[in-house]
Design goal:
elongated; single chain; 44% helix; alpha+beta; 234 residues; Arc Repressor Mutant, subunit A
């Protein structure tokens, strides 16, 4: 039985190596211009087919080892000038997004888009903003920040939408879980990193935050219902 198992494992490894050899990444038989064009089409196909932003590491699996991916992305973006969609950098990768100028057009069409569409209540939007700003943060700390209890249902709703996830345990008594935003959060709101979050001054100007540091207070009053609908930016 051991010998049969080893033989099966060997066949699987051999099959994987054969598969790798069968996919020609280098395209050395093509002239340079055609090779570059084929790499562009491969990268665009992968990005178009993916539900999430595609990382550099993923794209490197379908192009030659000496392919300059940043230059290739630049050429793809140039190809899309004048089109209703574009190639954007979000959440550490690249993704096709409909240009924002066509957001009203897509909403008016009432078509069902490929991405998750969810509507956040005023409270959920405010809590999500607080988690993004203060992370990693516990539910208790959120409740203290808002001056009212933040329910488990609110946290569960944001988790279900894929916008937050559990972070490290807090060093406070009981070691409660903290919450952090996800890569999907960045993608949904068109941010490449958390450094793209609005600064405290902008939040104060919007009426969402009052005070600084330990005295920070968040308010639901300035938060309108937030429609998280990627149809306008896909």
């Amino acid at each position: 039985m051991t010998m049969v198992g080893a033989s099966t494992g060997t066949r699987r490894r051999a099959g994987k190596r054969d598969e790798d050899r069968a996919f020609d990444r280098e395209l050395e038989d093509l002239p340079a211009a055609l090779r570059w064009r084929e790499w562009m089409m491969r990268v665009e196909a992968v990005i178009f087919a993916s539900a999430e932003p595609v990382t550099r590491e993923t794209l490197a699996r379908v192009v030659g080892k000496d392919c300059a991916i940043d230059l290739l992305i630049d050429d793809l973006r140039e190809d899309l000038v004048g089109r209703p969609y574009e190639l954007v950098s979000v959440a550490g990768g690249w993704q096709h997004r409909t240009r924002s100028v066509y957001a009203d057009t897509i909403r008016a069409s009432t078509v069902e888009t490929r991405s998750l569409a969810a509507t956040l209540s005023r409270q959920e939007a405010a809590v999500l903003m607080a988690i993004a700003t203060l992370q990693p943060v516990t539910r208790g700390e959120l409740s203290k920040t808002f001056g009212k209890e933040i329910s488990r249902d609110t946290i569960a709703s944001l988790r279900s939408a894929g916008l937050i996830a559990s972070g490290p345990r807090s060093p406070t008594p009981g070691a409660p879980y903290t919450y952090v935003t996800t890569r999907h959060f960045l993608s949904t709101f068109g941010m490449e990193t958390l450094q793209d979050l609005p600064d405290i001054e902008l939040l104060e100007d919007a009426g969402l935050m009052q005070g600084r540091g330990a005295d920070v207070v968040l308010s639901f009053d300035g938060v309108e219902e937030a429609e998280v609908d990627e149809a306008s930016s896909e």
